[in-house]
Amino acid sequence: MDAIHAGQSAALIEQLARPSPSYKRSARLAVAGLLGFVLLYFLLAGWFAWTAYRLALVAYHSNQHVLWTGLAAFCSAFFGAFMLKAIFSIRSSMPEGLAEVTAKEQPRLFAFLHALADAAGAPRPHRVFLSNRVNAAVFYDLSLLNLIFPSKKNLEIGLPLVNALPLGELRAVLAHEFGHFAQRSMAVGRWVYVAQQIAMHLVSRRDRFDAFLDGLGRIDLRLRVLAWAPKLVVWSIRSLVESAFHVVVLMQSALSREMEMQADLVAVSLTGSDALVHALHRLRSADDAWSRALGFVHGERAEGRATRDAYAVQSHITQRMAAILDDPSYGAVPPLPERDPEAHRLFKAELAQPPRMWQTHPLNHEREANAKRLYVPAPIDQASAWSLFSEPVALRERMSARLLDAAGPRGDGAPELADTELEASLRKLGTYYRREQFNRRYCGVYFGRALARHAASHRELADQLYAATPEEAAAFYPLSLKDDVRQARMLADECGQLEALVAGAARLSGGSVQLRGVDYRRKELPAALARARGELAAVEGRLRAHDRLCRSWHQAMAARMEGGWQPYLDGLLALLHYVEHTEANLRDAHGLLLNAASVVTAIRHVTDEGVVRVVSEANQLHYLLGQVYKQREALVLDTHLVARLELEGNWKEMLGEFGLPLAGRENINQWMGAIDGWVGHATGALTALRGAALEQLLLTETLIARHVHLKAAPRPAPAPSRVPYDYARLAPGDERKRQTRLGAWARFLRADGVLPGAARLAVAGGVVAAALGAGMLQTDAVLTVYNGLGVPVRVTVDGRAATVGPFSHRELPVAPQESHRVAAHTASGALIEEFDSGAGAGGSPVYNVAAAGPMVEWTASYGRAAAVPDRRLGAPRWLGSRADVLFGAAPKSISAKGGGTRTVLEGAAALAPSAQLDLLPDDAERRRVTLLHARWDDTRQPYTAEWLARAIAADSGQSTLLARRLREAPGDVALLRLEQDAAGGEAHAAVCLRHEERARAAPDDPDLAYLALRCAPEGEASRQGYRDALRRWPAHPWLRNAVAYEALLDGDFAAAAPHLDAVRTQLPQLAAEYSLTLARIQRLQRGTMDYQALAPLSPRLRQLSELEEGYGPQDTPTRAYAQLNRGALAAAMAFTADTPAAARMLRLAAASDGAGPDTIRRALALKPDQGIDEATVWTSVALALRHGASPEPYMEAAGRLYGPEQPRVRAFLDAVRRGSGQAEAEALLRGAQPEVRMLAYSAALVLAGERAPADWRLAGKRLLFAPERPYFR
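Structure tokens predicted for Zn-dependent protease with chaperone function:
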């Protein structure tokens, strides 16, 4: 059986199969790429798993952001599991439809295979399988372990290949496979296959992980937004893995091509250079014949008949197709030339070739050149390859039966297949292939050509006025027609290749294309395509002219005969025209639907627009199908056609009923699953009808020609076939336009092209990097440090330090452990405290520096959620809080069914001292907090002076604290002012004497000059002293403050304004108070204020402005004052009904312009302590005076609230009630505090009503904000 002597084969293998440098380079690159991919994959999966573990530890040891940290840990675990689960998806690579054979069953085959393997120096196959594919291949039975341990190789032998090749050529094919067996680099292919299963499972498989994320989005819109981030990361992981694996595939493809070439050389060394090339040549016809054989076998099965030997059918078809195509090389090999056989070539390079980067096999012309690079002549055994098999007939029948079984069940109630004799099957097959249109005398002109599609009407297919002569018939179907048919096929193939080149779907072999001796470069390809199309059109024009001549002659001759033969021929032509156009239209619409479906599903996520597009195209196809079925009554076949088609009835019965519903969004998936069957049935019926009609046309034309030759009249023709009057036409070139290029977004998602691929890689890499980086952001627990002192504090926890500003908070990362070493220092390095913290009581850990800031935990309620009382926490140093918000604002709204709550931990250290002290549980705590602030707060803070005053007032011994601070800052004006104010009697005189002496000693020091002036007795001399000093030092803030304050006491707001504006920026401790005062003055002067400049420095101004404008949800009390400001008194009271602010709002509304009697009566009926505060007490006094009620209860409250200011305002209101003049009344307010004056104007408006001076009305409306006054027109 040896084609080449064993010794010679060994020498040739040593010579030919030696790995080339390119082979070695490809192997190294493939291994490196694969290792890089595996490393990247496992590192990424491992990183996610490790991050999940680390974040779980952080969540366990930290009580802050536990939900988000836990969620991040879950997401990391999810991503890690998502990647790792693909590793366990590896399945065996056993192809389907294989039948194993053993040496016991087929001893000759195994002896042949073992001898061939031994000759090739390759391991013998582990198992051998037979299949029904035109193929021979080596494959592995793989598992995850085979990434480490080697897997034995199995051999597949396709019996259709055995049937098509002689023994010598089959030996060459199998020698090629054993060449693979001998290649150690096949292990790379094994690993790549395993990696491919992992990558494709990860990229393409949609499983419970995706269902989980999709399910989140269906629960709630908020969860859909939440699920978007992990879905983006999953997409990025898939994209990154796919892109990385593409690189591996590119390298493996290059190696695979080298391996194929190397395996070919092993086959050459054993069987010669020609056997393998001849086998490759036969493969195309073997594939074509086997495909046609499968069509016949399955068609028989559909009609209830079992084909006994499918391989005999394949052989029969091969013979018939060679005759029909008039191609002696179909299924055969041209003989080798006697001279220079090494130069003989069966394959030539095509004009267009597939992109090389994705090719795993070299092209045939490359393989032939490789096999004949060193030509090895050897005889080729022409014996039947079936001689290798024991009992080949029985084997062929068994494998044919497996072919039928593989098609699946035939349906419920279907009878068993009838066993058909092989001779009967071949007779039926022969009947089909002996059809008239396949007759050689037609030169193949009716094979694979449409006769009527180019014509708008069947009447264009024949010249109705043609003057025919009998002698012309001899000129029909000349041998030259064969050349035109071959040329038309060649040109059609050229046009297809050139179209692929122009579209970029194929690559150019070399730098140019040679077409009929002319070279066309890449940019000239459209011109080459135009030329090829022109030549094809010319050849097609000759063929169509010949067709028309034939039809015209036979119709003219038939018209001269009796018996209705011309209408009969005309009916067949009309039928051909109808069938070809209808079938082409259906297939084209079906193709457009499949194109649309493939485009909209290209990114694996179908949008609503995509569904609409597919449904629209589907219903267009549904309409065309419906028309075919609707017109079945109008299409009537003549009796000869009915008999030829073996119909029981007519076209209506052949086509059947139409039961396909319209497509819609709800049923489109099922509809797409069914449409192929409907289109296949309709086009199959049309194809059968066309074949029968064409055959009947040619037979009838032959009958006409014979009777013309015999000069005899044939018997009468049957009634002609009839077609629908109106039906859709589809001429060549009018096909529906397909979308051949995806949109930019789809190309990006699919990485379709260099730029989209690079962009997707960059985005996916960035997202994955961001996900990995996000996992690193939370490496520690988080401690929230709250600084309630009015001085920056540097906090050190376990060696990690951070500076926290006054009355603010900051998060500090700490190790997730039970205790911490904590120290707090001022910016100058003074130690405030140092201690070891405990484990805390659970919740988010919070460190309150020196326990200086009182804290309140309050609850924001939303929707129907019940209000929750505030929780005063005192001033703890270390606590674990379970609040939702730490030292921040509660969300304005939440998304929850039925409402909900959010708890907020708030520090109160920025409040006024009195408010802070009210939050503390006992006097000891109040004293401790007071001393802390007095000791540490910066004097530039608004309340430091008050803290110091309280500390001194609480214990006269605390004068030592003030003295200590003065030693630390001897020139601090604020401390020196306090030293003056705190001293009484002789002590005050001593302090002032000391300050005056310092001022005289330093006459150019404005600070000391200011302090000396403060010691002067009050009066005009003191005021003048301030003014003189300010002229000398115009930028001095304390002097400006003194001048501004005196102007405010006089009610001269215009004079005070510029000084206030300067002081509020120079003295931070006065910024909040003076920004609000300046805003009031600006509103008085111009009706508006500079909110952007003033509000940031005054929380009170921001609060009053927000209340005046209205903020918060629509139905909350915070919007009441906006209604009051617009005069909507009833709405304002409605907003505050059943709230603690109801009485206050009632008092303001009753004092407003336009208040009704009932509102006034209800306000006067309130208890004296209800709704009374600094803003409402004077309006209540004025309302009582105006309506004859006793003002005394309110006067008593005013005395408690305003102390020495009460008599001054009372005298002012008495003067207003008596009707005193404006100047007389205002003189009584001289020396009043600014806000007291403003509230007095407001009360005067209530008391005097329309009699009040215009200046008061303007001042009352503008100086005060809506929460501080009634409504005035």
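Residues 742-774 form one domain.
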